[in-house]
Amino acid sequence: MEEGTSKSPTHSCGTDGPYTDAYQWDTREDCEVRQILDRIGDKWSLLVIALLDRRRLRFTELRREIDGVSQRMLTVTLRQLERDGLVHRTVHAVVPPRVDYELTSLGVTLHETIQALVMWTESHQNEIAAARAAYDARTAAAANAQ
Amino acid sequence: MEEGTSKSPTHSCGTDGPYTDAYQWDTREDCEVRQILDRIGDKWSLLVIALLDRRRLRFTELRREIDGVSQRMLTVTLRQLERDGLVHRTVHAVVPPRVDYELTSLGVTLHETIQALVMWTESHQNEIAAARAAYDARTAAAANAQ
DNA sequence: CAGCATCCCCGGTGATACTG
DNA sequence: CAGTATCACCGGGGATGCTG
To answer: pTM here?
Structure first.
């Protein structure tokens, strides 16, 4: 199943157009971009990063703020983020145990980048909603005519 | 700042400067941000958007360039993107059938926004790799000590 | 309090076969 | 060529129970 050769897995969009260079990105399934994108796209990571923005929270506080997350998934998510160097974990040797989480400087920069995406979404949500409504209407009409 | 309920749909970014307060985003599971994030995070959407950047491709061309995608998933992905108004689909009434895909203007703006994320990834992939290596080393050491 | 281990389910995805 | 339809799989994620 190894990509092995991983031969130019993508379009080497040659010289076939009046356009200037399109930015070519790595399209391999195991590339770094996909790694991060998977992290972005998973269910809880972004929420954790957003909640840790300029804050320092302990496990239970995070869990309370993220309504719906299971203990297991919060743990798993935090471990991934810690492994990626996006979140820092501080264990206090006290009883009962206390563990604090905060963004690393790397995590902060990712958060800032993600904000652009969030703002894009908020600026264009109406267009998307309209597009969906139009699409559904067209689809329904087609199904109706048939 | 009080949270009240975690389902607060508001994001009060109003008159505050970018760093005076945390930017609150919609944390509901069904919010628009999550809708788009799910699209970003799925397996093929981003690849399609990237490949359609300043190009106009037909179904088979896309399929050939995206190594590993099944016919079914390419269809599903394109339908979602079309429904969201990100990709435009042109059907030519010829035999054999010819269908062209291209980004809409909305799709172009999303692509531009995503580029920031991709570039972040590329700039920081070394840090992430280092963080992972360090984490794994720590973990292995701990397991070893035990 | 902050986890880890286990079981289990569901939906996203792939493979395959068929069609206009 | 560009799909649609159906089946099967597997892994993400929830629920639960147990520990330091």
So the answer is: 0.84
Of B40, B106, B109, the CB nearest to A40: B40
Opening angle at CA B84, ends B78 and B87, nearest 5: 50
Best mutation target, A6, A8, A11, to test chain B (most B CBs within 10 A): A11
Q: What pLDDT is attached to residue A33?
A: 82
Domains of chain A: residue spans and CATH: 42-145 (1.10.10.10)
pLDDT computed for residue B22 by the predictor: 60
Q: How far is A100 from chain B (nearest CA, A)?
A: 17
Nearest of A88, A115, A119, A107 to residue A36 by alpha carbon: A107
Residue of A nearest to B61 (CA): A11
Tens digit of each residue's pLDDT (9 = 90 or more) over A70-98: 999 999 999 999 999 999 999 999 999 99
CA distance B50 to A16: 16
A46 and B37 Cβ atoms separated by less than 8 Å: yes
Mean residue pLDDT across chain A = 84
* D4 C1' to A115 CA distance, Å: 39
